[in-house]
Amino acid sequence: MKQKIAIGCDHAGFPHKDSIIKHLTEIGHEVKDFGTFSLESVDYPDFVHPVAISIESKTCDAGILLCGSGNGVAITANKHKNIRAALVWRDDISALSRQHNDANVICLPTRFITLKEAIHFIEIFLATEFEGGRHARRVEKISENC
Prior knowledge:
The chain is of the alpha/beta class. The chain has one domain (4-142): Sugar-phosphate isomerase, RpiB/LacA/LacB (Ribose 5-phosphate Isomerase B, Chain: A). Helices cover 43% and strands 16% of the residues. The protein has six helices and five strands, in the order βαβαβαβαβαα. The protein has helices spanning 14-26, 45-56, 71-77, 91-99, 115-127, 134-142, and strands spanning 4-9, 30-33, 62-67, 85-87, 105-109. The chain has a five-stranded parallel beta sheet with strand order 2-1-3-5-4, sandwiched between helices. Helix 4 links the parallel strand 4 (85-87) and strand 5. Helix 2 packs across helix 3 (71-77) and helix 4 packs parallel to helix 5. It is globular, with a radius of gyration of 14 Å. The model has no long low-confidence stretch (mean pLDDT 94).
C-alpha cells in the first residue's frame, strides 16, 4: 500500500535522508521532507516535532526519523500523545514494532546502520500490519493517562 510518509533528521541522519526519499518515491510513496537540509549541526527536536504533528493531524500516514543513535528522535517523538515511535536496528525489531506496538514512526540510528539496512528496515516497517487482538488492548493503554 502506498503511503504519505513524513521524514525528518538531524545532521547525523542527513547523509541517509535523500537516498531514503529517492527510494521511497521510486516505489510509489509520497514523502514530505521536514529537514534538516545539510550537515550543519542542528537540534533534532526542531525536525521531530513537525514530523509528529503531521502524523497526529493525519496529513501523513507514517514517519521516519534519523539521528546518530536514534534515541533522541524517539524520545522526542514519543512526547506526542498519539505517536508510537520505535527505535529500530534489526529486521525483527522493525516487524515487531508494527505487529505488536502499532508504531507509526520508525527511528533509525544512522551511526550504527548502513543506508542499505536503513532502507530494508523501512520497507519492513511500512509493509507490516498491526496484529491487533491482545496487542490492541495494550496499545490503547499507552496514552491512557497523557
